């Protein structure tokens, strides 16, 4: 589907066959299981704007995070601009030149837009709402779009039970997602074809029947098999592109294990650095007030889109790893990031660390490995290395090795637990392959993180396991178990 302008600037919306069937569908409940980048949210946005203008009915877009709902809402704004241009052209066609200026002034007031609400001629509203707490939506009435419904927590049942009644007075409900596990309401909706209007389009059908063209980064066509080899994730491809319910994603670390990992006596420090703002060179001086022990660091690297996170565990004589330092860096230059990590490594003798050496992180990690020989390990993320990190992390929380600050009592630490919980996993599907396939879902409390905090923690655990032993036992003064630790 494309939204473009012709030579006379009249907007033209073109749908492929699968999108057109979805756009024309007026069933009470429409369930959409399209492959990635098929334009399912874009088509739903076009439906919402078209219906709102024609019928005057309200539309509500909800997702598990505000960011996802906003993304679909922005697509609605594009269609509003297209309809606005078309209606303006039609209005002017019926006027002489003397009326144009007055018409323009009047027409501008027919459309009102804020960041999350569009008000159309006739009073219909299109609004983006977060789905974190379904009870906040209970008093509304209108059409509903659930986007990425497969990611809704607790199987989506609570949200469905609360939000579906918004449509009681004859309105539509559109449910959009790519498949996740079968223990979810979305799976029920997709498999009950008698009750619901179901739209299914895997990549193979899209290419064969709808004219969808896969291209490389130079715009050159490539085949599905070539693309599949690049993706190199059999289970992920089946789910994301073949639209199959291949298995059930579970949290790598159960919430009950995170709750059990809380230690109210941990004196952990957190620092947020945004660009060049927020960094304090004295931050790691607080190590002098901590009990004796080596600090084991994990650094998940990012520069622009995601968060760069540095996690420091204090290794205790009892074998426990207690989160002592966390630095969350957003859009920081690499020079500053390296300076922060270097200062962390030097804050106490014998510190060790592991860093994400994938892509942008390669150069920085090579430098750290050269500066801290035998004490810093670069780790290139792959399905194998991520599986190893995930397995070690799951074990550390299962046996109580990893300890966290009391995040239920201190809200600043709750996003950390939520980030760990956002790492999802499933078996590879191959009986001979015991790897865990990890997937990153959104952290509603830390929207810029794609499990970046969690991976820094997993890298810190690897640093302790892979490098701590090379240094031998802790020096005698560090072997004394402090009170409370």
Can you give me a brief rundown of this structure?
The chain is an alpha/beta fold and 485 residues long. It has helices spanning 17-24, 40-55, 66-93, 97-108, 157-163, 185-191, 203-210, 224-231, 234-240, 255-260, 334-346, 362-371, 383-398, 414-421, 452-466; strands at 2-5, 11-14, 29-34, 59-63, 112-113, 117-119, 125-130, 143-146, 173-176, 197-201, 250-251, 269-274, 295-300, 307-315, 321-330, 352-356, 376-379, 402-403, 423-427, 436-440. It folds into 2 domains: 2-240, Rossmann fold; 250-479, Nucleotidyltransferase, domain 5 (2-Layer Sandwich), CATH 3.30.420.
Task: Describe the protein in words.
With 485 residues, this protein is an alpha/beta fold. It has helices spanning 17-24, 40-55, 66-93, 97-108, 157-163, 185-191, 203-210, 224-231, 234-240, 255-260, 334-346, 362-371, 383-398, 414-421, 452-466; strands at 2-5, 11-14, 29-34, 59-63, 112-113, 117-119, 125-130, 143-146, 173-176, 197-201, 250-251, 269-274, 295-300, 307-315, 321-330, 352-356, 376-379, 402-403, 423-427, 436-440. The strands form four sheets. The protein has an eight-stranded mixed beta sheet, with helices on both faces. α1 packs parallel to α2 (40-55). The longest helix has 28 residues, at 66-93. The chain starts with a strand and ends in a 19-residue tail after the last helix.
């Amino acid at each position: 589907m494309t939204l473009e302008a012709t030579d006379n600037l009249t907007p033209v919306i073109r749908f492929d066959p699968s999108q057109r069937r979805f756009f024309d569908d007026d069933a009470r409940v429409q369930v959409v299981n399209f492959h990635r980048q098929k334009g399912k949210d874009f088509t739903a946005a076009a439906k919402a704007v078209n219906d709102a203008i024609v019928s005057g009915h309200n539309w509500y877009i909800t997702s598990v995070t505000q960011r996802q709902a906003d993304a679909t809402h922005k697509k609605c704004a594009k269609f509003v601009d297209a309809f606005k241009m078309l209606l303006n052209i039609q209005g002017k066609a019926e006027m002489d030149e003397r009326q144009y200026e007055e018409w323009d002034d009047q027409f501008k007031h027919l459309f009102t837009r804020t960041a999350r609400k569009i008000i159309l001629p006739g009073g219909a509203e299109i609004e983006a709402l977060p789905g974190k707490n379904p009870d906040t939506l209970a008093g509304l009435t209108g059409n509903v779009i659930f986007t990425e419904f497969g990611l809704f927590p607790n199987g989506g049942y609570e949200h469905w039970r609360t939000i579906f009644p918004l449509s009681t007075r004859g309105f539509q409900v559109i449910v959009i997602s790519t498949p996740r596990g079968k223990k979810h309401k979305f799976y029920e909706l997709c498999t009950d074809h008698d009750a619901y209007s179901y739209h299914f389009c895997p990549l193979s059908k899209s290419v064969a029947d709808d004219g969808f063209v896969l291209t490389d980064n130079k715009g050159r066509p490539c085949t599905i098999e070539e693309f599949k080899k690049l993706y190199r994730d059999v289970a992920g491809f089946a789910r994301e592109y073949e639209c199959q319910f291949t298995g059930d994603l579970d949290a790598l670390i159960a919430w009950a294990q995170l709750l059990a990992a809380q230690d109210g006596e941990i004196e952990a420090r957190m620092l947020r650095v945004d660009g060049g703002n927020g960094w304090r060179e004295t931050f790691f001086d607080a190590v002098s007030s901590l009990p004796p022990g080596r600090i084991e660091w994990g650094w998940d690297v990012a520069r622009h889109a995601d968060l760069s996170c540095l996690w420091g565990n204090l290794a205790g004589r009892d074998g426990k790893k207690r989160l002592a330092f966390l630095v969350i860096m957003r859009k920081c230059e690499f020079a500053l990031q390296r300076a922060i990590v270097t200062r962390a490594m030097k804050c106490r003798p014998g510190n060790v660390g592991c860093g994400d050496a994938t892509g942008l992180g390669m150069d920085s990690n090579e430098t750290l490995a050269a500066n801290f020989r035998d004490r810093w390990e670069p780790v290139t993320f792959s399905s194998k290395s991520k599986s190893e990190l995930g397995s070690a992390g799951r074990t550390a929380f299962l046996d109580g090795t990893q300890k966290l600050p009391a995040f239920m009592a201190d809200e600043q630490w709750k996003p950390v637990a939520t980030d760990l919980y956002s790492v999802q996993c499933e078996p590879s599907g191959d009986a001979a392959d015991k790897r865990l396939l990890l997937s990153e879902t959104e952290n509603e409390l830390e929207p810029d993180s794609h499990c970046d905090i969690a991976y820094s923690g997993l890298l810190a655990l690897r640093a302790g396991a892979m490098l701590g032993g090379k240094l031998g036992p802790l020096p005698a003064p560090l072997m004394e178990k402090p009170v409370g630790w």
